[in-house]
């Protein structure tokens, strides 16, 4: 893989203020325990988690803010731009408040912060020479419009009859099954798309932009090249083909587009008044930003373990990945020599 890296990693890099652990969801643990699987998949929707927040926002959006079906049957600037504005506001509230809380006002100090650096980067590799400004720019100028495009095409398709949507009353069980499996489906899609994005031509074209962030913060999550946004959010296309309830589509979009603000927050949990209130980032993806050639998925499905791409956060795993990289560089030198 011929990827130039802006920084080389060393075993002696002492960058961690707080480490892991990397813990996969017990859904795929052996032996199979159906009760554990059900509780793991269901609990997130009824406890104080971001999943529950997305469920509440989606219900509010669907019931109170979406235009009438007759209006959405025709693509017009009015409702399309109001969808864009709503999504931009959601992104600004979620990523912005996390950034203000964790970085600007440093409300939990260094507690549970993975990277020991306290401020985000200012470097010429970023647009505007400033990591936060760069990240906000790509989030809002590319991420939100592409997210909105998927949303608009879905609701336009439903309104004009080219996409089938299911009612809740006739398909209640199906609705809850979708709710349980969405994070598993997204995790699998993410692994596949993300490995594809590490294919050198696609990395150079698109994914390099996201990887300029070695230290990460809430705005880094959706700071991606437009090509990456299109691929990353494409998991929602499943609802264009398999009929579901529209609220599930909104939840799916929020899981895709708002979760990265949490998963890149750089802190394992959010602490308010000394009490941990909810999960934020996971060490698994923090390691991906540090070491690149590992942890392509997330902790919902242990694809990294099954496909031998896991960095579990230990020094041993770091040694293995650095050795692999040395061999790769040697090989490349020999080939070019
Ligand atoms: Zn990332
Ligand atoms: Zn990557």
What does this structure look like?
With 337 residues, this protein is mainly α. The protein has one domain (26-336). The chain has 14 helices and 2 strands. It has helices spanning 34-43, 50-65, 69-72, 77-104, 131-159, 172-197, 200-211, 226-233, 238-241, 246-257, 259-263, 283-291, 303-306, 315-336; strands at 269-272, 275-279. Strands 1-2 form a two-stranded antiparallel sheet. A hairpin with a 2-residue loop joins strand 1 and strand 2. The longest helix is centred in the middle third of the chain and has 29 residues, at 131-159. The radius of gyration is 20 Å and the shape is globular. The structure holds zinc ion (2 copies). One zinc ion binds at residues 210, 264, 285, 289. One zinc ion binds next to helix 12.
Summarize the SSE layout with pairings.
Blueprint: H1 34-43, H2 50-65, H3 69-72, H4 77-104, H5 131-159, H6 172-197, H7 200-211, H8 226-233, H9 238-241, H10 246-257, H11 259-263, E1 269-272, E2 275-279, H12 283-291, H13 303-306, H14 315-336
Antiparallel strand pairs: 1-2
Helix pairs in contact: 2-10, 4-5, 5-8, 5-10, 6-10
This protein binds zinc ion (2 copies).
Name some characteristics of this structure:
binds zinc ion; mainly alpha; two-stranded antiparallel sheet; 56% helix; 2 strands; disordered N terminus; 337 residues; 14 helices
């Amino acid at each position: 893989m011929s990827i130039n890296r802006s920084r080389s990693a060393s075993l002696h890099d002492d960058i961690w203020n707080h480490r892991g652990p990397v813990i996969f969801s017990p859904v795929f643990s052996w032996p199979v325990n159906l009760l554990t699987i059900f509780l793991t998949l269901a609990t997130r929707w009824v406890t104080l988690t971001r999943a529950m927040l997305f469920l509440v926002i989606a219900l509010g959006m669907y019931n109170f803010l979406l235009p009438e079906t007759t209006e959405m049957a025709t693509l017009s600037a009015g409702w399309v731009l109001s969808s864009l504005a709503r999504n931009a506001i959601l992104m600004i509230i979620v990523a912005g408040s996390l950034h203000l809380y964790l970085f600007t006002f440093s409300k939990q100090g260094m507690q549970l912060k993975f990277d020991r650096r306290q401020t985000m980067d200012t470097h010429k590799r970023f647009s505007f020479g400033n990591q936060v400004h760069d990240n906000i720019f790509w989030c809002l100028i590319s991420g939100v419009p592409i997210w909105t495009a998927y949303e608009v095409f879905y609701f336009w398709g439903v309104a004009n009859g080219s996409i089938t949507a299911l009612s809740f009353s006739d398909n209640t069980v199906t609705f809850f099954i979708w709710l349980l499996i969405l994070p598993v489906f997204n995790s699998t899609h993410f692994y596949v798309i993300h490995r594809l994005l590490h294919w050198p031509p696609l990395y150079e074209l698109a994914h390099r932009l996201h990887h300029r962030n070695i230290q990460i913060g809430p705005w880094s999550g959706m700071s991606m090249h437009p090509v990456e946004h299109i691929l990353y959010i494409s998991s929602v296309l499943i609802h264009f083909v398999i009929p579901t309830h529209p609220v599930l589509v909104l939840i799916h979009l929020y899981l895709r587009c708002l979760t990265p603000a949490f998963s890149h927050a750089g802190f394992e949990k959010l602490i308010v008044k000394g009490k941990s209130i909810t999960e934020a980032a996971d060490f698994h993806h923090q390691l991906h930003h540090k070491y690149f050639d590992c942890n392509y998925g997330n902790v919902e499905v242990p694809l990294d373990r099954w496909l031998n791409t896991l960095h579990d956060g230990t020094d041993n795993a770091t040694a293995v990945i650095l050795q692999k990289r040395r061999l790769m560089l040697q090989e490349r030198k020999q080939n070019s020599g």
